[in-house]
């Protein structure tokens, strides 16, 4: 899915040449950048948070909501409450969204970084050690002398931290209260993948699952439920996740598909429906009932027991086909049937992929007749448009277009016609054809125009996915 923000521009009407009012947008909603990747995600209290491009999303099995946007800084870790983001490349940096403050924690360019899901701690590594600090005060909590650590993961309550050192093919788990090492397992595969179960009692790696509460804590539970005494397994799966009840182990199989394995059931394997592109993200929800899968520019939420798709998040095609005012919200329909609801006052957004809702939403046919039924729009030749009086079938007036498709809407009182041609929007007096207002600052061809129910605003959807709201000029 892509960048979404809402900038409120307080503009005034200014006189342009020939007596026509040049209109300045009063609000603008830029389109999302297609093809944006999810760079990091975390388990939230009721689903997941994910950063797609610069857009921070809250994802559940039923909805996708935007929490805000962040600077494009290559963030690779996020807390489950969405407050903190961190990056590891080019030095470890931390962003606190609550204060807007960005802090450099380490200049080491190739370390690992992790944020606790509950937002209480950050861990990062350099070539010699791992440092753990509390948040938001950044007070030191622990330091571990370990070199070349390539993966870090906090337990859900941030009382333990797991470390992968891929070059040495080992995994370690530390108790942050006692600083004790509760697990040190060598001779693992060198494939990345590291996560805790929701209760923090198990650690999953591509080789299998470690039970930290079992007396045989240094043993490895294979996918078939048996144990080995520390030998390595031949695997080529990553990443991975494990449920708290040990019944579910999720991993990326050799075939590139996501497998959900349950050793305690006869039907042990469930294969999730494939997504396009390479898979790189697997997360089980706090209740182990949802599975978040990331692939290319798509995120999918699955039922963790059946593999069924519950929600799909993907950047919609840029072009907006229709706009509708729905109370205090604008509903935008994109070409691929994805729908975005925009709160008119603050610009917050909610997305729905209608292909998961039984098809596109019912949209009204684009208005080409006046509300009172007296007038209709009409093409005049190949490069002009006009208004036809229905009773007499007479064209009252005509005007030249700016090229491209023509988009029209009559005002609720039938006194004005909004005409979008090319990237220019004009307001015409319906009776005379006089241009009473014009906006040539849209920057992209217009694909749809809609008046607000009270006739005070006009929303213009554009080919690049942006929405521009204009104040309707008084006459």
What does this structure look like?
The structure is a single chain. With 475 residues, the protein is mainly β. It is 0% helix and 47% strand. The protein has an 8-stranded antiparallel sheet with strand order 5-6-7-8-37-36-35-34, with no helix packed on it. Strands 1-4-47-46-45 form a 5-stranded antiparallel sheet, with no helix packed on it. Strand 19 (170-175) and strand 20 (181-185) form a beta hairpin. The two termini are 42 Å apart.
Question: In summary, what is this structure?
Answer:
This protein has 475 residues and is an all-beta fold. The protein has two domains: 7-31 and 317-471, no CATH class; 38-313, YVTN repeat-like/Quinoprotein amine dehydrogenase (Methylamine Dehydrogenase, Chain H, 7 Propeller), CATH 2.130.10.10. Strands 5-6-7-8-37-36-35-34 form an eight-stranded antiparallel β-sheet, with no helix packed on it. It has a five-stranded antiparallel β-sheet with strand order 1-4-47-46-45, with no helix packed on it.
Largest sheet properties: 8 strands, antiparallel
Shape: elongated
CATH superfamily of the largest domain: YVTN repeat-like/Quinoprotein amine dehydrogenase
Structural class, judged by helices and strands? mainly beta
Number of domains as seen in the coordinates: 2
- The CATH architecture designation of the largest domain is 7 Propeller
Residue stretches low in confidence (pLDDT < 50, at least 5 long) are 1-18, 217-237, 354-367
Q: What's the alpha carbon Rg, rounded to whole Å?
A: 28 Å
Helical content band: under 10%
Q: How do the strands line up in the largest sheet?
A: 5-6-7-8-37-36-35-34
Strand content: over 45%
What is the terminal-to-terminal distance? 42 Å
What is the C-level CATH assignment of the largest domain?
Mainly Beta
Annotated CATH topology of the largest domain: Methylamine Dehydrogenase, Chain H
């Amino acid at each position: 899915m892509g960048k979404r923000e809402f900038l409120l521009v307080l503009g005034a009407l200014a006189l342009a040449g020939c007596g026509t009012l040049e209109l300045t947008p009063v609000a603008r909603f830029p389109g999302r950048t297609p093809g944006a990747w999810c760079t990091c995600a975390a388990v939230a209290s009721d689903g997941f948070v994910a950063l797609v491009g610069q857009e921070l999303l809250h994802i559940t099995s039923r909805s996708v909501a935007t929490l805000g946007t962040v600077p494009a800084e290559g963030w690779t870790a996020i807390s489950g409450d969405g407050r903190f983001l961190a990056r590891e490349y080019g030095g470890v940096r931390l962003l606190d969204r609550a204060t807007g403050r960005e802090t450099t924690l380490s200049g080491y360019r190739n370390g690992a970084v992790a944020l606790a899901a509950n937002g209480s701690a950050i861990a990062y590594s350099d070539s010699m050690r791992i440092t753990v600090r509390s948040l938001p005060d950044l007070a030191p909590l622990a330091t571990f002398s370990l070199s070349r650590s390539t993966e870090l993961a906090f337990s859900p309550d941030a009382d333990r931290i797991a470390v992968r050192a891929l070059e040495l093919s080992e995994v370690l788990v530390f108790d942050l209260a006692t600083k004790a090492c509760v697990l040190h397992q060598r001779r693992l595969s060198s494939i990345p993948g590291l996560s805790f179960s929701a209760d923090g009692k198990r650690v999953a790696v591509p080789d299998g699952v470690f039970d930290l509460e079992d007396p045989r804590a240094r043993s490895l539970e294979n996918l078939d439920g048996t144990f080995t005494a520390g030998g390595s397994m031949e695997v080529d799966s990553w990443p991975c996740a494990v449920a708290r009840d040990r019944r579910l182990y999720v991993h990326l199989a050799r075939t590139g598909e996501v497998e959900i394995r349950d050793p305690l059931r006869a039907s042990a394997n469930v294969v999730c429906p494939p997504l396009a592109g390479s898979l790189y993200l697997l997360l089980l929800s706090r209740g182990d009932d949802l599975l978040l899968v990331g692939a290319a520019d798509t995120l999918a939420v699955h039922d963790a027991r059946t593999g069924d798709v519950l929600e799909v998040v993907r950047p919609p095609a840029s072009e907006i086909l229709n706009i509708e005012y729905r109370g205090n919200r604008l509903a935008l329909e994109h070409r691929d049937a994805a729908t975005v609801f925009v709160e008119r006052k603050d610009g917050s957004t909610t997305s729905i992929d209608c292909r998961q809702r039984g098809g596109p939403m019912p949209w009204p046919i684009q208005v080409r007749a006046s509300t009172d039924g007296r007038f209709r729009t009409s093409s005049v030749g190949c490069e002009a448009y006009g208004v036809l009086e229905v009773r007499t079938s007479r064209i009252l007036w005509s005007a030249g277009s700016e090229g491209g498709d023509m988009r029209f809407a009559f005002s609720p009182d039938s006194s004005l016609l909004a005409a979008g041609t090319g990237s220019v929007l004009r307001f015409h007096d319906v009776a005379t054809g006089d241009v009473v207002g014009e906006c040539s600052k849209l920057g992209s061809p217009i694909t749809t125009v809609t008046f607000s129910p009270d006739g005070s605003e006009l929303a213009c959807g554009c080919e690049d996915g942006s929405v521009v709201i204009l104040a309707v000029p008084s006459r």
